Amino acid sequence: MKKNFYNNYKPNPDQMALFPKISGNTINGLGERKIRNPDYVYWGNDPNDIHHGDLQKWFYTVDPGLKEYDTIRKERTEILQEPLAKTKKTKTNFTINKINNFFSKSIENKFFDKVGVTKFNPIWSFKGIKISYKNIVILGFQHNYENIKKSPKPEGGLEVMRQYKRAAYGAKYFANWLRKNGWEAEPLTGPMSGKITMIPPAIEAGFGELGKHGSIINPEFGSSFRLSAILTDCPLPYTKKQSHEVDEFCLNCKICENECPPEAIFDEKKTVRGIKKWYVDFDKCLPFFNEHQGCGICIAVCPWSRPGIGFNLANKLMKRKKRQKSS
Ligand code: SF4
Ligand code: SF4
Predict the structure, then answer these.
(1) Integer angstrom CA distances of residue 41 from 127, 140, 182, 197, 216
(2) What pTM did the predictor assign?
């Protein structure tokens, strides 16, 4: 492991004293061979209900020294508290044109930056939560790269908060549009865990592939974006799962591994709840994450996240794959 600027970091002992006996990796199902629904490990809707709840509370005691944090948190809470529109009694049967118009206008107006739709799979909900909706819409919100690249300084975390605020608004806006057209819809927004894990449905809905740093990567935004979701029965057309050889790229790239101060990023895939995938050591990541407003180094240093890089990289990788196939 290459040394990086923050490698001398020593976790705050007050924080370490709050760690529960059980490992977050155990709760996540690291090493488990059977597929099962996830348990809440962090960002519990009520911190008192999760093993790492005292650490979640501690996160909010760290003063980032930027007033805008409080303002954005307050604005996000106001958005979340705003009641949803009433669901109209008669359902609109949307044409593809009408749906595409709504998507492109919403993107143009910055209500969200990317959208995908897929069938809801019950394995995505947290243990004990039953979801009766058939479909899930995933929305993406891109970070401003100049801000996110300042991670782990507080400006990086602030950018994450800005996008979570947009994510909350975007999901409500989309859900309200469906409801005003007669379709039941429930918005789900981060950072709290809510009812489901968002990464697996986002991958299915075409948001990209899982990177070594445990976040999704796509050529448009790299891994520099946040997600929110809407559950609905509205028969919106499904979007396609995408592959741009990101997985292959991660096998040969070590940037995030080397830049992660607590060395939390594994260099090989792990089996987690029956699925072999890239995985970040929760117990190693959390102390640094908590002390640095959510960290974000691994997202910022990922070459895919640099503006203008992703599509060229994806093209090169696809060409290389074609050449390999034909030789
Ligand atoms: S968020 Fe976690 S895994 Fe990513 S660089 Fe920071 S400490 Fe490492
Ligand atoms: S920094 Fe490299 S290894 Fe890490 S997620 Fe990005 S491409 Fe993959």
Answers:
(1) 11, 23, 35, 11, 19
(2) 0.96
